[in-house]
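Lecture 7 notes: from sequence to structure.

We start with a single chain of 277 residues. Read the sequence below before looking at the structure.
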Amino acid sequence: MSTIKELYRARDLITNLTRRELKSKYRATALGHLWSLANPLTIMLVYTVVFSYIMRVQPDRGDPSGLDIYALWLLCALLPWLFFTGTVNGGISTLIGNSGLIKKVAFPRSALIVSNSIALFITWCIEISVLLVALVIAGSDVVLFIPVLAIFMLLLALFATGVAMFLSIANAYFRDMQHFVTMFLQVWFFMTPVLYPITLVQQKSELAGPIVGPLTIYDFYRLNPMFHFASAFRNLLYDNRFPSLTTTALCVGLGVLTFTAGLWFFKRHEKGLAEAL
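Now the structure, written as tokens:
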């Protein structure tokens, strides 16, 4: 609880750090924050061409929305994934990037990680808003699910920030961590149902049968935390239905527990940061 109170007392600092992040990211560019839309749209275009038109991946039709547009289906999980990886990668490098500030000024170092997450969250909200408009134009009733969507966005932000806190400390002491995480996230991406439907994994799992006792490939696949977040966002945005109670409970647990554990771990190793950096 003391760490939460420290962050609350440092709210003015977090606000200023967040403003700094937002201003510096696209400083001196002609399009400014519109560039934040360029990356997901470019990735969506490439993946849509490769997986929808060349490899002929067919996602399930939205139930009950009836949507059958691969590009929108892809963005419903791609945008949460890009926010997650952006928060993790940004959090890992934040401490090293602010080493001069850490060595000179006394303040809660976790404020750097939190401000990075908030800045990315604001950008993510803009991206999601554009997606919501596209979904409504396509005939989706997603507007009805915006309040629940906001809750899941907050839960994913907590989960991503918690992971970033763990890895930022690890990277401060072991600089190879950043390169390892970059490779691991690439593997993690393809192990998450972003480009292909979950039903495809279920079909392959049924064909393979049990691989360890009664456990199947699908059972191990579900151990991926981002599996549950991707499913929840697709349910809300594309299908226009509430996620299952199991998915909801897992997302709540992953978000709250990971953030709490990450904050505790960060606080425990915070004192030696100036020397490590």
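Residues 2-276 form one domain. Keep this in mind for problem set 3.
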